[in-house]
Every structure is written in structure tokens, then in C-alpha cells.
Amino acid sequence: MNAVEELLAAVHRLTAQRMSTPVCGTAGHAAGHVCLVPSARTAFPDLQKAIGSRFGEPRSLVTGGTVDPAASVRTGLPLLTPFGERVVEMRAWACGDRWLGCGTTHDDDGDVRPVVLVAEREDPAAGLGRPASWVDGIVAVTGWETTRVRTVDWAAVEARLGTPLPGDYKRLIEIFGRPGAFDDYLQLQFPDAHVESMDIVRDTEWLDEWVRTHGSRLRDPYPVYPAPGGVLKWAGTEPGEGFYWLTGDPDPDRWPVLAQEDTPGSWIRFNGTTAEFIYHMLTDPGHPFSTARWYDVHWYQDYGHPVPP
């Protein structure tokens, strides 16, 4: 195991959830975080790449010594607190109730050194009232910033699919912008995703072609869209669960959600909207696919794959 691999192993231990308050061993640093000091020979870009390969696309808190004016407790500010004005670069990743930071700082001699740290992350939804919509609720509990809303040519997407799509799903795609996962679990399918299996159009076309060419009983007792009333996939997970709409109603906002575990025929139906399903998945420990059983604080991991603007 090389130095970077050892550092990542330490990061994984420190980002474990529901642990006690982290205490840093660096003199003068208050509790609430732990600093890891990589070798001075370890390049910052290499560290960022290694951490990003596991935790996704980071937020840039400090670039060239300039702090992002939008930096706040919700976006990773606790990662800057231990270093004051010494920070030269800092990237931030959310991971449940922890922030993970990677950057460079000036040491006591004025030299620039790499640093990695893990800090406590407050619940971004703490103290907030009932959300105005399920989409707003998802944004609130994940602490997602809505300043980078994506524009999507929905007319073109829906024309290629041959159907309108639920309005709350489209809003989620616009807000979260790029493929990723809620709580390192549920992965939305996006238009124009980098990976075919995460592209709602190409995956739908592929599944339709497969069923017509080879036949399949994996979605029984439901037909596969574009068959009338067929199931249309909108999300999945690494373990193999799939999340679909049952498309029989002419109004897509009334489509129920069907969840299929990795065993054929194991369907669970939810008579609610897409965003309602995700919100309860994140917040309700009694939800069949709940992540609230494992995480008290939630996040969206941006995979960083580029999509057309």
C-alpha cells in the first residue's frame, strides 16, 4: 500500500458515520476535525484525483488563496477554520455527517504543504420547517446549492422517448445537474449522461431493443416501455435495485413508482411522486429502501461526468 492508498484508508475510517466528535492532534487546533498530513512530496492534484475517484466531484472553497465568497457552513466552511488565512487551495466533499477536505496551506515557515482533513458536518435541514415541495425537501436535507441550475431541452428528450416525463423528476435533473447518487446509493438517470446505463434515453432504447430481440421476463408481470402501460426506468443502485415509473396514466405526474430489488419479480409499488419517493427514502427509517437507517445527515455525490450545457 503506497502513501496515497494509506491516506485514503484513513479517510474512509474517519468518514464513518455516527462516530464521536473528531479531535485533531495538531497543536492549537480545536476539536471537531482531524488533520492528516501527507508527505510534502505528494502533489495536491494527485491527492484531489485520488479522493475524487471515491467521493466524486468536489466544491472549490479556496482557489489561489481566494476564498469563494459563497462559502458557508452549508458548503464546507468548517474545513477552513483550522488554518485561518493560511489556506492556498481547498476542495470539499460532503459525506453524511462529515466534511472531507483536500488542499494546500502555508506552514510556519511559509512553505506550501498539502493537507487532508475530515471535519464535522451539521445537518443542513436542522431547524427547517416543512418544505414547500418534495423537491425543496430533497434540496434542504442534502444541503445542495441551487446556484448552478442546468438547462435541459426537455422537448427533445421527451420527443425521443415518445412521452412527457414527470415534472418533479425534470426539476431534480435541472437542480442536481449531473449524474451522481443520493447517500451513495440511489443514482438518477439523466439525459445525455456519460455512461449509457445512467442515460434515461439510451438505457430505455437499449432495454426496448433487448426485449424485442431476445425477450425477457425480468420485468414481469409488467411490460417494458414503450409498450402501453410499460415500466420506464428513472434510477438504479450499485447493488442492482431498479426504480421505474408505471406509465399507464396519460398524466406523467400521476405515474406511481415501482421499485424492483435484485431478484426478478420482487416489485414494491409507491403511490406517490418521484420526489416524494426520494424524500422519504432519505428521511424515513421505515421506508423499504431507506438510507435514514444508516445516515443521519444526507448528501448528493456528484460523479463529475460532463454533460452538455
UniProtKB/TrEMBL annotation:
The domain of life is: Bacteria
- Which SUPFAM superfamilies does the annotation name? SMI1/KNR4-like (SSF160631)
Task: Please state what the protein is called.
Answer: SMI1/KNR4 family protein
Native source organism of the sequence: Streptomyces atrovirens
InterPro entries membership: Knr4/Smi1-like_sf
